[in-house]
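**Tokenised fold:**
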Amino acid sequence: MAKDATIEIVEKVRKHPNADKLSICNILGFQCVTKLNQFNDGDKVVYVRPDTVFPEAEWATEYRKYSIKRVKAVRLRGEWSEGVIIPFEALPQNYQDTLNSLISTGDQIIGAEVSELIGITHYEPPVPQDLQAKGGLPMGIPKTDEERFENMKYLPYGKIVDVQLKIDGQSCSYYYNYDTKEFGVLGRSLEIKYKLADENGVESFGVNRYVENALLYDIESKMRAYGEANQLSFSIRGESYGAGLQGHEWNPHAKMNKGWAMFSVFLIKEHEYANKGHRYYFKNVAKEIDLPIAPMIEEDVELTPELVQKYSVGITELNGKPFEGVVIKTDEDTFKIINKSYDSNK
């Protein structure tokens, strides 16, 4: 699960090259623009990552002014600022007492998640009004949310990886349970009703984007056949895109016809993703059951710092179009690289 707000150490502070009253603080793999002399090397702070939301609390009023909808990467006088650094003293006294108590236990507390304590939540795109929710995600299927590369202590440089385009749309997944023969439809954090029954018990398909995709691509019958042939309980994770989804001007997928694309396979009984090289790696499954995948940008390439920087800050377009970011797929894990120019304009 991605972290949202943690206790961290400011690694390095330097003066902003283009502003006399600003500094740049390095923390984890991120950098944040702050007031001049507000922080020093080695300070223990709360670091709030991009894609988070501040609470509607008095202490957070100043921070919410600059992050009304969500915290995101922005350019300030030509330098990227990625997230927010909060000094303990900016928090209410009861929060300060709790954090200082945690710190007193030793440095092992660095990296501890404190989102719930101070009311920081992860940003969730608006849920469609036509959504017929059935409940939470079933069978331990997790939310679709890869870790940002900046949050990782070590990157697997030297590994051979695939680079997949991150589509800016709406998480839309499906599952088949081999034991119960059940097919289901999933949003990012909810199971969606696939069929609805009227007062007479007559069933009809739900009317929403999730069900539309299932019918458009004949996903139920394809997953049933594949699950039975392989005695497999699995979920295919994907992204719905097109008119009406994430419709800001920078999003090229919002201007396309409605569609869906797969980006991973989750094995339900094993409770793990089928990573690169696995028999059920998403590319293999998609090919066998004839389903589209999110575009592959590069395949079987070495992961290097240059490749990471390329997709983070080195380019702003792919094939002449803006892009939200890419997902790096290894034989052990996946992580995402968000394109900072795109993120700052969302």
Summary: The chain has two domains: 5-122, 133-345. The radius of gyration is 22 Å. Helices lie at 61-64, 93-103, 115-118, 209-216, 219-230, 282-289, 305-314, 340-345. The chain has a mean pLDDT of 89.
